Amino acid sequence: MQPVFGALAHHAANRPGAIAFRDDTGAVTWAELSARVASLTARLTDAPKTVGIALAGGIDYVVADLAITLSGRRQVPLPFFFSLEQNAHILMDAKIGAVIARDVTMFATLPHLSVIDPAMPDGPVLPLPDYHGGAERVIYTSGSSGNPKGVIIGDRQLNASLVALSKVIAATPADRHLSIIPLPQLLEQICGIFLPILAGAETVFRFEATKALFGAPITPLTEAFTEIAPTTSLLAPALLGRWVADLAVHDQIAPKGLRFVAVGGASTAPALIDAAWASGIPVYEGYGLSECCAVVAMNHPNEAQKGTVGPILEGLDVTLENGEITVSGPTVMVGYLNGDPAPERWHTGDLGHFRDGHLVIDGRKDALLVTSAGRNISPEWVEQRVNVDPRIVSSALSLRDKDGALVLIIAMAATVLLEEVATYLVDLPDYARPKDVIFVSPKEPDFLFPVGTPNRKTAQKLANSMDPQQLP
């Protein structure tokens, strides 16, 4: 992380009045950002080793992240999209001793926990101290059910990821990043905070646009892209599909200056990629996981291959073992919190293959369905056919226990007819075609993870408990 703080000090000294970050409450220049980070770092001198971040996002989050890192401590985001029970588990599991938050009342019942306001108090402007290393961040995976696991990421992982992604995205001070994905997620920390600082680029946060990720109207996202005219952004496939559809409804195209929109976190249908490019959205698919510092492969401008997630990032070694993607290299996590150190080669649990040097994701190993006829089906193969419909937020293919029939659970933001679903599945072989469909709301408890991927345990329960509609 030393290059990030070196870049921040450089921008503060040479471009002090230029805007670094903007959010719904205002803006901060490079000089102001440096001063706020230095101030909060000083206030953390006597803080516990592990500090939580209980902020939804925006400039306050950026300041908190950078200050905790600069102080050499371990930071733990408390995601706003996690349940109270999950965040309570994180507080205990990570042994958090202090929290940076604006809302003091939410921690009033925990008197042992000190609460630190991220606002800069009155006083002298402090210089940005040197970074001596040793900071860690714990990213808790899982956003809907069960106790999340903490992935430990340190300087080694972040530095390697930043070097590799900088070459792919090639950001400059002329860039403007629109941050949509919540900052508690590692990939947006990298793309929305660290890469822009390294490049001297501006980042803009719009929380109303972020809410669209959780089923809120898509209009604020479309308006944010139009108003801000960013050059880069990061989206989940379901959000991309809704934006493409909204542009089509209003006979619009994406802002002309947009040059790089990374999409990942779930399978993206090739038809959606085509529709995005036709709408002026330069989409580049990528693949990764928190255990490997968010990104393992990414398509590059001018050499992207549709249907793949691109070549492997520089510095990583990816091999396939019985079809499973395994990763070795400097971005592999330190380990799980309160667990053993990570092995040198990480088995991702994802299935894939290579095509002309580009990685293709075939699905999750543990999601593979085996029918009564002995057929193996990757549910993602079926799901991406219906997920291309912008009215469909996500879907999950399951096997019903009582008869072994394939049942497709569809979370829809607007009405989708059974006959329409059937047309998306018409080219599937008989053994992979679902017999029944169950329509649910995107707000169905525990069904969707924050990036829009389905919780397959919940899908299995729904397949066995809800009344389906039979496909024609």
Essential attributes:
472 residues; 2 domains; alpha/beta; GMP Synthetase, Chain A, domain 3; Rossmann fold
What is the strand tally? 25
**Which of globular, elongated, flat, extended, rod-shaped describes the shape?**
globular
What is the CATH architecture descriptor of the largest domain? 3-Layer(aba) Sandwich
Overall structural class, as computed from helix and strand content, comes to alpha/beta
Oligomer classification: single chain
Strand content: 15-25%
Q: At the third CATH level, what is the topology name of the largest domain?
A: Rossmann fold
Radius of gyration, taken over Cα atoms and rounded to an integer in Å: 22 Å
Largest sheet: spatial strand order: 2-1-10-9-11-12-13-14
Number of domains: 2
In CATH, what is the homologous superfamily of the largest domain?
ANL, N-terminal domain
Largest sheet: 8 strands, mixed
General description of the model:
This protein is an alpha/beta fold. It folds into two domains: 2-361, 3-Layer(aba) Sandwich (Rossmann fold); 368-470, GMP Synthetase, Chain A, domain 3 (2-Layer Sandwich). It has helices spanning 2-14, 30-43, 58-70, 84-93, 155-169, 186-199, 207-210, 219-228, 237-249, 270-278, 379-387, 418-424, 456-465, and strands spanning 19-23, 26-29, 50-53, 74-77, 98-100, 114-116, 136-140, 150-154, 176-179, 202-205, 232-235, 260-263, 283-287, 297-298, 317-321, 324-328, 335-336, 345-355, 358-364, 369-370, 376-377, 392-399, 406-412, 436-440, 469-470. A hairpin with a 5-residue loop joins strand 20 and strand 21 (376-377). The N and C termini lie far apart (56 Å). The mean pLDDT is 93.
